[in-house]
Every structure is written in C-alpha cells, then in structure tokens.
Amino acid sequence: MIDEKGILFVLSGPSGVGKGTVRKSLFDRATDLKYSISMTTRSIREGEKEGTDYFYKTKQEFEDLIKKNRLLEYAEYVGNYYGTPRDYVEETLDHGKDVFLEIEVQGALQVKENFPQGVFIFLFPPSLEELKNRIINRGTESEELVKNRLIAAKTEIEMMDAYDYVVVNDEIETAVQKIQSIVQSEHCKRERVAKQYKKALEADFS
Ligand SMILES: Nc1ncnc2c1ncn2[C@@H]1O[C@H](COP(=O)(O)OP(=O)(O)OP(=O)(O)O)[C@@H](O)[C@H]1O
Ligand SMILES: Nc1nc2c(ncn2[C@@H]2O[C@H](COP(=O)(O)O)[C@@H](O)[C@H]2O)c(=O)[nH]1
C-alpha cells in the first residue's frame, strides 16, 4: 500500500542555538506542519504559557506518563524531564498530517529507532562563541544552568552525524527557508516513491 501517513520532522541542536526561534518563525508562515507540544517538569519561564510552550508536569505526573507508555520518547536533560506525547504524534501522522518535534538529541535518537523514516534536522550555531552569547543573552537560566547546558551542547554536537540534515542558524530567515526547502523536498521524494510504486503495481496487474 502507498504510505499516506504524514512525515515526522525532528529538529534538534544545542541549547541556545535558536531552535525555538526558528520553529516559531516557520510556524508563523503558512505551514501544514503540526507542532507537537512537549511535556516537561521544568518550571515555567516568564512569557511561557501552559499548553502553548509546554504541558508542565510534576515529577510524579511525568513518571506516571512514562509508566503508562504515554510518551513516544523522553529524556532527562540538565535536571528535568522532557517528553513527547505518543497519542498526539501517532494520531496526527495516521491522519496524513506532518508532525514537527523540537527536542534534544537523546530523545531524537529514541525517535529514530521507532521512526527511521522520519527526517532529522540538526540546527548548528555559526560558532561556539555565538552559541554561548545567545544562551547567556537570553537571560532565562542561572550561570550554573548555562554552564550545564553548554556541557550538554558538546555531547549533542558530537551526535550531529546521526541527522539527515545540518542547518546553520546564522541568519534566522535563511535557516527557516532551508527548513522549508527540506520539508518540500521530502514531500517530493515520497511522491516519487509513491509514483514508482503505483507504476510497478499497474505493471503487475496488466
Ligand atoms: N539567528 C539568530 N541570530 C541571533 N540571535 C538568535 C538567532 N536565533 C536565535 N537567536 C536568539 O538566541 C537565543 C536562543 O534562542 P532559542 O531560545 O530559540 O534557542 P533554543 O535552541 O530553542 O534554546 P533551548 O534549547 O535552550 O530552548 C534567543 O535569545 C534568540 O532570540
Ligand atoms: N527529548 C526531548 N527534549 C525536548 C522536548 N521538548 C523540548 N526538549 C528539549 O529540551 C531542551 C531544553 O528545553 P528548554 O525549553 O528548557 O530550553 C531543548 O533542547 C529542547 O529542544 C521533548 O519532548 N523531548
């Protein structure tokens, strides 16, 4: 059967590289992508909203979700849990809609095991110095947390080869356009495969 499910796109990259900024700019444009809102145990930041940025959970609530297998993937990242709701992603893909995840690397690797047909994009900083400046200037984390996130960034960058695409986030506009191009070309690839499959089926039955 021709696969009519949606495509799963996964965006990762070190903390402060600009994943959230690029994703929001992508979603501000006309897009058919559906964003999967994650669950987290981290505290809500000023300006964030429950159900828009995250679903905020206690540690106990999060561990219950893990036990009940309600998460497609989850990871402990710099002292907090983060995870992707399984039902939302599976149901949306089954309805033929594309899903976009913005998650860290350990979680992305778990997703890759279950969805090898997914499209994995790594957002890379123009330089490590710029990465550090961005996370410090965002001003949302204490000095210690910034330090821990930068330590995690090193390990994350080492895993970059596991991704299908690397996009450098120098100019936001350029990075967003590149991700839009990736989305379009992945659709074209699948259309081509579907056409080839259809042709082979017709030949079989003629
Ligand atoms: N291309 C860019 N040029 C300059 N500044 C940028 C760019 N992209 C993002 N920023 C800024 O860098 C900071 C970090 O961006 P953002 O919060 O989107 O990163 P993130 O990768 O989502 O981080 P985290 O993983 O910690 O949530 C923000 O202050 C944002 O405004
Ligand atoms: N494995 C997962 N990682 C996630 C998920 N949602 C967000 N994240 C990533 O966590 C870090 C920290 O996020 P922050 O909002 O505290 O700055 C960042 O890399 C996010 O992309 C998820 O569901 N699973």
Rough outline: globular
CATH homologous superfamily of the largest domain - what is it?
A: P-loop containing nucleotide triphosphate hydrolases
Number of domains: 2
Number-wise, the strands total 9
N-C termini distance: 18 Å
Structure commentary:
- With 206 residues, this protein is α/β, with parallel strands linked by helices.
- The protein folds into 2 domains: 1-33 and 98-206, Rossmann fold, CATH 3.40.50; 37-96, Guanylate Kinase phosphate binding domain.
- It is built from 7 helices and 9 strands; from the N terminus they run E-H-E-E-E-H-E-E-H-E-H-E-H-H-E-H.
- A 5-stranded parallel beta sheet has the order 2-7-1-8-9, with helices on both faces.
- Strand 5 and strand 6 form a beta hairpin.
- Helix 1 (19-28) crosses helix 7 (172-205).
- The chain is globular.
- It starts with 7 loop residues before the first strand and ends with a helix.
- Bound molecules: adenosine-5'-triphosphate (ATP) and ligand LQESDW3C.
- Adenosine-5'-triphosphate (ATP) binds at residues 13, 15-21, 134, 137-138, 169, 171-172.
Question: Main traits of this protein?
Answer:
single chain, alpha/beta, Rossmann fold, Guanylate Kinase phosphate binding domain, 2 domains, five-stranded parallel sheet, four-stranded mixed sheet, globular, binds the ligand Nc1nc2c(ncn2[C@@H]2O[C@H](COP(=O)(O)O)[C@@H](O)[C@H]2O)c(=O)[nH]1, nucleotide-binding, ATP-binding, ATP binding, cytoplasm, transferase
